[in-house]
Amino acid sequence: MKITASKVCVYEVELDLNRFENQTTKDLPGFVDRLLEAIPSLMTHECLSGQAGGFAAEMKAGTDLAHVVEHVILELEYLADSTGQRYSGWTRKRRKKENTYVIHYGARDYLTGRLAAILSVEAVRKFISGDQVDISEFVSWLKEPVQYFLSERGRQTPVPEFEEPLSIILEGVKGLAGLPIEEFSLGSDSSKLIEISEDQKGRISDVLAQVCPCLHTVQDEWKKSFLNYGGQFADIVLGKMQLLNLDFFVDLLIRKEFDKFQRSIGKAARIIRSYRIPLNFVTHSMWLYKNHLMEQIIEVYSGRTSLSIVIRDFDDLFQFLYLHTLTALLESPVPGNHREGPELKSFVEVYEADHTILVIDDDEMIRGILRDILEYSGYEVLLAKDAAEGFQIYQEKQGKISLTILDWVLPDLGGADILRKIKEINSDAHVLVATAYFLDNEDRRLLDDNIVNLIVKPFKMQNLLEKIKTILPD
Hints:
By secondary structure, the chain is an alpha/beta fold. It is 53% helix and 10% strand. A five-stranded parallel β-sheet has the order 6-5-7-8-9, with helices on both faces. It is flat.
């Protein structure tokens, strides 16, 4: 049983049950009892019956192990953060892949979601084999996922495909999704970068020379994975992320010119920094490329005694790449204060646009996506999760805000009310109402009377940007 792929937001993993494909919980003597004894709170899960104990009843009647992994993920997350949100999930069989199931589930942040899957698969493996499982230890790791990945235990996880490079590099990270580069620090150990020995350089050169004809396949697979991971925003930054793929450096590595390789990494990272691309996109892009490259290397070296050595060499090579990339990202000057050539110059001219946009929306994911897209497009962005916070920001920053993107349905105050409040402060305020709901005649008259623009959810980001350009002066 192993995890074969993953996505985030909402979290999704593919789980290959392998030899357990045709087995259910009923076919594994003592499994259900061991599981419920170790995690008694699973008895509260309702599942399809809608009643507490429904999941336990399904296990006793016989259910597939992917379904069990889903519930263990959700319960471990809750035990690690019982004051937070209770997440839900679902499982289905992927028809086109033999033995493979897809599990969707929620998580409070990027690392927690990834680690919850790792620990749950490992726990279910142990329950199947009858081994002792200390769930309290699993929960303690899940409470501080960064520390887990930073430790040797995390790096030797039974699911090596899920090694998370960013967590090995950074310390003190509380959450990753969409956070800007400026919020991270490598700390006092940033000078202790991994080095590649001469023997490793020789082996890396030889391997890349052999797999070089396959790199176009690696690039194609990486592109598909990256677009699945980041959607619309990934499509926009795709060209910049390619600057850190080994395709661009393969000739240098084959010639063993690692000094030039390191300098090239720094230059590519500074270009990426100037575009303010969120850090998790940078690191996950490299991690995806590594996985696809390793698939090709393993295929070429399958059956050779040197395979394990080659894998370690390329693990070190990618740690070298991650660390020097992060160093360049975190130590580079703020965009606009340096000269890197025509590409950066043209971006700086866009980046220094003097418009600030306030986004008022109760959906955290929408706020994050809008922030990423708008900042990438050259706007300064302020975020508010409800009407009260949005109105407070507007009062404090009213002279600076060029446009307010307003969700029409908010938990604490209707869109009409917050619009009136904004217009009382500034009758000429630019407001763009975003809604997925049908507006009645009164609401439409209010928008018309105040010359307010409207965009209907779901909308394409390109349409949003075009709408903004029609509202805001150059």
